[in-house]
């Protein structure tokens, strides 16, 4: 087995160091944001985000331009990272607020069994219940107060695997933090699926504030590695579990829900300034980590990334995406199952249950609020107030909360915000048929139960671990809480309440 593994390593173009001591093996530092979308980083050309640490990792290593999470939801996305499997292969792990499926090995488990010191801090796998599966520690590793506490406890002769799970830029946000930090409303690039209103711009600035706070914490971790002299022997990965917490983003398979920043630094294996345009799924990280550590890779659906850096094989031309139940926001605890394939030109989506509302019921079933698969925010509340109205020719309410057809097809080059569904245009029938076949083949090959039973209720019936009951939000009173502080530029008057949807609020 060891000989076969060594041969496979050589064929992949990845050659580990020859030293045999434990300390010669690389450390793994995995840093994951909570709800951060591509392209919100300086290295991607964003005009607002100041992300010097992420930019440094991407400049001194590799930056990825087509990295996607396996699912736009915290628990399944993190389970997929840990196991190297698609969420639909992880049973209960395919849902948010689920029970951990302990029968599937993780790269953390395997690292610990092979002599690594492992740990995590803050948000590991979850939210969900791992203790019901017989685990005493989070699947991401034993929890430590912080990175320094972890390193203090580490035996000197052991390499480490550490998971840093930030809570940024997850909601809730403190209003006006972006403006107070010196950001400007006029610099915001408002995605086309959101109304260009002053209060939406302000909400995005508050999101950016937390993106920058996350980046500063990343910088502290890198500084610690430099101080102890272990930065260059550490595989450093910075990414996000899913997209930003805005309507038509997080919990959706459109780009702002599933396309995420990704940068990796390991100078002995990755040439500085490497840019990766090939498609990668974050399930590729687990086998990449195991290969870097010299540990045989078990049955995983992800592929090691190291051949990309050695240029020994072409990258992937597409990526497959999915989601099941996010929050408990539909009567009967129902899922909203979706599968998709994304290429460099098109996004094809199949909504398995188009009779269900994609963002949840209009009144609270149990969790979050109305349309609870969208996190509560001033942006959400404003769009809820726009029902039956159009703004700049778009029906933002329907885009965010309305029913969707069984099939969707978008030209992501001409339509980067995925607003114009081409699935029912005869002109694009050949494209749709080709992508539908790709998606169907992937579902069959990966054992997706929705291949044979598209309307399966399997994920509907799984336990949702929280038992608290939320209530409907008084939308108008919530909106009135938000007032933008100066400077406001051309967008509105000082202290304007966001209840207003007048021309003063428009660009």
TrEMBL record:
<comment type="similarity">
    <text>Belongs to the sulfatase family.</text>
</comment>
<dbReference type="InterPro" id="IPR024607">
    <property type="entry name" value="Sulfatase_CS"/>
</dbReference>
<dbReference type="InterPro" id="IPR017850">
    <property type="entry name" value="Alkaline_phosphatase_core_sf"/>
</dbReference>
<keyword id="KW-0378">Hydrolase</keyword>
<dbReference type="InterPro" id="IPR000917">
    <property type="entry name" value="Sulfatase_N"/>
</dbReference>
<protein>
    <submittedName>
        <fullName>Choline-sulfatase</fullName>
    </submittedName>
</protein>
<feature type="domain" description="Sulfatase N-terminal">
    <location>
        <begin position="26"/>
        <end position="295"/>
    </location>
</feature>
<dbReference type="InterPro" id="IPR052701">
    <property type="entry name" value="GAG_Ulvan_Degrading_Sulfatases"/>
</dbReference>
<dbReference type="Pfam" id="PF00884">
    <property type="entry name" value="Sulfatase"/>
</dbReference>
<dbReference type="GO" id="GO:0016787">
    <property type="term" value="F:hydrolase activity"/>
</dbReference>
